[in-house]
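Side project, low priority. Logging it here so it doesn't get lost.
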Amino acid sequence: MVKKVVESTAATGRRKTAVARVHIVPGVGKMEVNGRTMTDYFPAEAMRNYIVQPFLLTGTENQFDVVASLKGGGPTGQAGAMRHGISRALVLADVTRRPALKSNGCLTRDARKKERKKPGQPGARKRFQFSKR
């Protein structure tokens, strides 16, 4: 039995508390997320468009198959992490794609996280109502 050698590129993307391990291989544009299809995992079309943005910017739509493993966070954070991972994998595969992705903010890790709740207060910024008397 002869094993087929496929050039695969892997990268990690992050946003909020979500982490995406993304593998791209030359293919026809199929996307698999946690063993499910992309449309099944992300029913909102806006999120799917956000995820495929790196392919559209580099002109590589329908040239790669994507297999992603997502953990943590919610749907928006996971979509952002997957977009970041795809962008990093595309740059690893071909460095000439970097300027297009960087100028559109695809390679920037969005580090905004939920601020922690402070002790003695009801929330991160919220304070108890002031009482003069």
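Brief comment: Strands lie at 9-15, 18-26, 31-33, 36-37, 64-71.
Revisit when time allows.
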